[in-house]
Design brief:
By secondary structure, the chain is an alpha/beta fold. The chain folds into four domains: 2-176, no CATH class; 236-290, no CATH class; 315-369 and 421-610, von Willebrand factor, type A domain (Rossmann fold, 3-Layer(aba) Sandwich), CATH 3.40.50.410; 374-416, no CATH class. It is built from 16 helices and 21 strands. The protein has helices spanning 2-17, 28-41, 64-69, 97-110, 121-135, 140-151, 162-176, 272-283, 355-368, 389-400, 443-461, 492-499, 509-521, 547-562, 580-584, 598-610, and strands at residues 26-27, 49-52, 55-57, 74-76, 79-80, 84-87, 90-91, 234-237, 287-290, 315-316, 321-327, 332-344, 375-381, 386-387, 411-416, 421-428, 464-472, 478-484, 527-534, 565-571, 589-591. Strands 10, 11, 12, 16, 17, 18, 19, 20 and 21 form a nine-stranded mixed beta sheet that branches. α11 runs parallel beside α16.
Length: 611
Amino acid sequence: MEEKVGEIWHRLITRAADQRHPEAAVSLKSVERSVSLLFRALGGDGGLEVKTTSSDEHGARRSLLQRIAGSNKTVELAWRDEHSLRLPAIVDWFPESRLNRDLYIWLAALAVGEPRHEEPWFSRNQRLTAATLTRYPALRPRYLRLVEAHLMQRIPLAKLPAAEKSQERAIRNALLQPGSEPRLPPADRPPQAVPLWLHPAPPLAVAERQSGDDPDGKGDRGNRLQLEDEHHRKGERAKKPEAQDKGLITIRMENIFTWGGFLNLDRGSEENDDLDSAADAARDMNTMSVSRDARASGGKLRFDLDLPSEANDDLVLSEGILLPEWDFKKQQMQDKHCRVVPMLAADAAPCPLPAQLRRTANKLRAQFQQLAPARCWQYQQQDGCEIDLEAYLRYRTDRASGRVASADGLYKDLRVGERDLACLLLADLSLSTDTWVNNEARVIDVIRDSLYLFAESLSATGDQFAMYGFSSRKRDPVRLHQLKSFDERYGGVVRGRIDAIKPGYYTRMGAAIRYSLRLLEMQPSQRRLLLILTDGKPNDLDKYEGRYGIEDTRRAVHEARQAGLQPFCVTIDNRANDYLPHLFGTGNYVVIHKPTQLPKELPLLYARLTA
């Protein structure tokens, strides 16, 4: 009975203290695409990803009901850094969903400006607001509606102490007239959160791994459970408690209903059910404390991701070439930074086309044969199958009139025309291709079938084409697997190499594109297409992860366009719309939402690109 009364009381007091409006909530997932497009269209950094922010304790004054209910301690505020634009996972500040949606739009527009984190929070947000309203006057009505609705939610000035009253008055004036308040008056506690402004002290992401953080991935072991949670959480370093430290167990009654202390995430000796319990606890924690522990968990096999021995590896064709790489932080090219090594599957035996693909291949070959240039007459040739009557009559007329006439070009011949096109298909063979797309096939299997049908289709057109796969493990080496070069004919040998492909390591895409650029530059064709097939964004073990890899790939694509190439990306990554517009530009990529359709879609896509 006592527990039931407590539950009812907790539910009533929490509902009375809650100032949010879940019935009008708008999630970031529902507006992510439009917000991302708006941010880039207004001039925002195209390399930033839109992600959810973490909730932080604000420390501001709360109402009596909120203090009784123990609610409204944290708030989610937007912020941005050099890697991402962070927005709340759910916005339910206002009673109308239109206003909550407008808040997402306003925050995206506000984040377009330079944040300057060293500038005081109060003046920084006033400057950004004034600049946004000046640059985009159409946003002013939306902003004024948001300010009016938000001011009604803030604690009235009459209920605040004198110091906090002057501080609150300055914030209200700054919201109504951005730039009118030069400084924020001091007070004993932080001011109430302003959801229309960016975070006062954003937890900027650490770009590089700290020493001792297991850079080679050797500590990745044991069972995993992915939290299906939209919210991000802060992390902090904590000293790992010593196992031998034992003492008197005491209980403080005021700590019974709080989560705190140390959460040991090394659960290698426990069952999967405990992972669910740990996940439930983690969802209630705003800050995760982690510590370094090199001790391996028991009962698990540990695999070190390293290169195979030379005897079991593919055949190395040469020592490789050194290629540059773009450092977006320094805004300069690093010469001879990556080594690309061409390789060939030495033990790949010639094989026929798999039986399950033959029917589709026959259909595609029949379609692609229509793209082959038709036979046409070539006139005024040195030799040919017939005499060019028009050229011959002109020659006889010139001779009869006493002019000097040349006997060259008196024949015509029926020849096959040429499309003057060269295509290089670059396939991502990273470790992520080892994941399963359904109960029957992995990503690597889908890519293999796509390569089969792509080669079968292009062999029917007579177009010059080559196929390579790539993976990397840091900048040396970047492995480029030759499946078919431009000089080779498609046949059983090439099919054997396609059959031998397997998941490799990581995705240093910039170096692979630059190497492909060199191969295509040696082709005499007037039109040259670089087709990139991938299942995710650029990444590697070192600093190539994140923004660095995206900017280097973008630079490599720009270099390819300057050289006269046509780069085009085909991906099965459902989140590719977040970063591919920045890499390849609108209209230069396509997302295949059903990976199993990739083998059929890829040849047809090539037909549309080269029509």
